[in-house]
Design brief:
The complex is a heterodimer of chains A (113) and B (112). Chain A is mainly beta and 113 residues long. The mean pLDDT of chain A is 93. Chain A has strands spanning 4-7, 10-13, 19-25, 31-37, 43-49, 56-57, 64-68, 74-78, 87-94, 103-104, 108-112. In chain A, 37% of the residues are buried. In chain A, strands 2, 4, 5, 6, 9, 10 and 11 form a 7-stranded mixed beta sheet that branches. A 4-stranded antiparallel beta sheet of chain A has the order 1-3-8-7, with no helix packed on it. In chain B, strands 2, 5, 6, 10, 11 and 12 form a 6-stranded mixed beta sheet that branches. Chain B has a 4-stranded antiparallel beta sheet with strand order 3-9-8-7, with no helix packed on it. Chain B has a two-stranded antiparallel sheet with strand order 1-4. Chain B is globular. Classes of the chains: A mainly beta (113), B mainly beta (112). The interface between A and B is medium-sized, with 24 and 22 residues.
């Protein structure tokens, strides 16, 4: 089972460049999430989509946009990358938004120079 | 606002011994869920255990169990018979209302 698949796994960007992180899940989950994890720190929620057709800001949404393309796919876009966005990004999904186990992708290492 | 605090940045345990990781939280919600996730060096986040706040019985999963003290807003994870493969970062997670909040993590080292 693929679970949650995110691409790319590694990316180096120059300051000001844009890029999109792709995420897809094959578990028919309703809710999807994007987190970032900085070195030695926990996960911080960037954006989430509680159900298809909805997106909401999390704790650290500035500098990011998201698109819930369909039930399977949830992309994260950096319009103008900044060094402060250097991080590991995790896409995740769950059956519902409340009380359900979150399943994570393997992470995308993003470096902005 | 809700908060999750893991007060132990690092813990160490001898193989086959028992270790307890602490987590305290704060929320105004009466119905919520608590999770422990494990993140090994591969960075893949894996669910360890889940607790529903309305259940008084502490959750257990094989060698992993929790001590859930609702009044004290405490949710500690006990790992029995520690194994080398338990070495990882452990994150406590609170799902309350429409918010998901992770603690800062505890790095567990297992000594052979």
């Amino acid at each position: 089972n693929a679970g949650v698949t995110q691409t790319p796994k590694f990316q180096v960007l120059k300051t000001g460049q844009s890029m999109t992180l792709q995420c897809a899940q094959d578990m028919n989950h309703n809710s999807m999430y994007w987190y970032r994890q900085d070195p030695g720190m926990g996960l911080r929620l960037i954006y989430y989509s509680a159900s298809e057709g909805t997106t909401d800001k999390g704790e650290v949404p500035n500098g990011y946009n998201v698109s819930r393309l369909n039930k399977r796919e949830f992309s994260l876009r950096l319009e103008s990358a900044a060094p402060s966005q250097t991080s590991v990004y995790f896409c995740a999904s769950s059956r519902g938004y409340t009380g359900n186990t979150i399943y994570f992708g393997e992470g995308s290492w993003l470096t902005v120079v | 606002a809700q908060t999750v605090t893991q007060s132990q940045p690092e813990m160490s345990v001898q193989e086959a011994e028992t270790v307890t990781l602490s987590c305290t939280y704060d929320t105004s919600e009466s119905d919520y869920y608590l999770f422990w996730y494990k993140q090994p060096p591969s960075r893949q986040m894996i669910l360890v255990i889940r607790q529903e706040a309305y259940k008084q019985q502490n959750a257990t999963e094989n060698r992993f169990s929790v001590n859930f003290q609702k009044a004290a807003k405490s949710f500690s994870l006990k790992i029995s018979d520690s194994q080398l493969g338990d070495a990882a970062m452990y994150f406590c997670d609170l799902n309350a209302g429409n918010m998901l909040t992770f603690g800062g993590g505890t790095r567990l080292m297992v000594k052979p």
